[in-house]
Amino acid sequence: MVQIPLLSGAYQTRSIIAGAQRCVNLFGEVEHFETFAYFPQPTGPSVTTHYPTPGLTSLATPTSGALRGLYFASTDQLFAVVGTEVVYLSSTFGAQSLGSIAKGTSICSMADDGSTLVLVDGTSAGYTIDLATLAFSTISDPTGTFVGADFVRYLNTYFIFNKPGTPQFYSTESGSLTFNALYFANKSGYADPLAAIAVAQQQIWLIGTQTSEVWYDTGGSLSVSGAQFPFSQVEGAFINHGCVAPYSVAVYDSNVFWLSRDNAGQAIVVMGQGNYQAQRISTHAIEYQIQQYASISDAVGYVYQNQGHVFYVLSFPCGDATWVYDMASKLWHEWSSADVNGFLHRHRCALGCYAYGQIVGGDYETGQIYKIDPKAYTDNGTPIQRIRSFPHMVADLKRVRFNRFVADIAVGTGNPAADTTTGAAPYIYLRVSRDRGASFGTPLQQTLGSEGDFRKLVQWRRLGVARDAVFEVFWSAPVETALNGAFIDAEPLAS
């Protein structure tokens, strides 16, 4: 038998004859290597193991409506925007409505200085929350400097805003929420308007619609006396990538992620780094999938960390899809949620953050707050369908008889009787395409084994003849699993 490893992550290309590998609700973890007799060897039987993506557990339903904002303040307080309601969520996830904002569907941006939280929603209004009393109010600026914003960020005692539809950004005075008419500047390297603002490593990333540049705090607290704007551009920090989807911007450590656009095109996912370069992290296959959506400007991104993996999550409301990049393995996967009929859609969580010792996400449709939980194997009771397609099986385009396919998957972790909560049974299914991935046959069922039966061999026999076959396994059993790949017994024929 020949071992078939899974090395590439999701890679379904524009032509299925080149690559037809789907990776849905599974992420790859590359095994580390040890040296034996001067040769590096993986510590396990496979180079890459695929583990289940986290499930969802309900924490709160603060109010009905789409989740528009989620923010964990520096004071260890969690805030959400659901529909038009601004909500405080305690450490026990009790919900307290604080006030209302303008009706809309845009993502809301929040930042705080330890005493005051500032919220903007893309309109000309802005809002504050006193973090000690939870008093909610509207920003009032007699100078007329505050004109609303799509983004608010905080750096070195200043709140920083973009002026919507322009290359301009502006800030408060140091250590306060007062404004100075002189505290503004233009993104200067190119005339494109600002799409988003991010702060990473104590620097401001001004991400335009076609180009980007990085600014920094020149130092010192400036007064109302007319002193110059406290920020200046980092010399040479100019990036020829702008942003097509403002809310795709997310930050982890010194890295800034976004869905790019430039003078040559769009739909490449990039990661800005501390050397002021934007590294392309999407593959041709991912870029092709993204370009099929009717609109990509509505994409929303966030970052979460799970067991040492840092994931950049990029959801497309119009495309009804969620793609996830793993910084550890540099592989992509699809993250999907099923409806009541079993059809797959984008993941339920519109946004996520770390709060109260766990990863918290919010539902894009209902506003429900979830724990993004690696120990949960359903999405709040709804089965999670996990799919992994294998590389093309070809032998010089000769006909091949496939005698046996053995899934190298963890077994014995659940009872084969139907689960009383979800109705799902711990079964796995195999589908075979004999036309290069264009269509698949009837799913063939196998059990994942009785609880404790760790020697169970998950295999299928007499799988027919093809010149180019694609195998695909899928399951939705609410049990812990891990997939290394497969072993296949194949016999090339004479022609």
Structure description:
This protein is mainly β. The chain has one helix and 50 strands. A hairpin with a 2-residue loop joins strand 11 (78-82) and strand 12 (85-89). The longest helix is centred in the middle third of the chain and has 8 residues, at 284-291. It is elongated and about 85 Å long. The two termini are 21 Å apart.
The gist of it:
This protein has 495 residues and is mainly beta.
Task: Indicate the topology.
Elements: E1 2-5, E2 11-12, E3 20-21, E4 23-24, E5 26-30, E6 33-36, E7 39-42, E8 48-52, E9 55-60, E10 67-72, E11 78-82, E12 85-89, E13 95-100, E14 109-112, E15 116-120, E16 126-130, E17 136-138, E18 152-155, E19 158-162, E20 168-172, E21 179-186, E22 194-200, E23 203-208, E24 212-217, E25 231-239, E26 242-243, E27 250-252, E28 255-262, E29 265-272, E30 278-280, H1 284-291, E31 300-306, E32 309-316, E33 321-326, E34 332-334, E35 336-338, E36 344-346, E37 349-355, E38 358-363, E39 369-373, E40 378-379, E41 382-383, E42 386-389, E43 393-394, E44 400-409, E45 427-433, E46 444-447, E47 458-461, E48 465-466, E49 468-475, E50 483-492
Antiparallel strand pairs: 1-50, 2-3, 4-42, 5-8, 6-7, 9-39, 10-11, 11-12, 12-13, 14-15, 15-16, 16-17, 18-19, 19-20, 20-21, 22-23, 23-24, 24-25, 26-28, 27-28, 28-29, 29-30, 31-32, 32-33, 33-34, 35-36, 37-38, 38-39, 40-41, 42-49, 43-49, 44-47, 44-48, 44-50, 45-46, 45-49
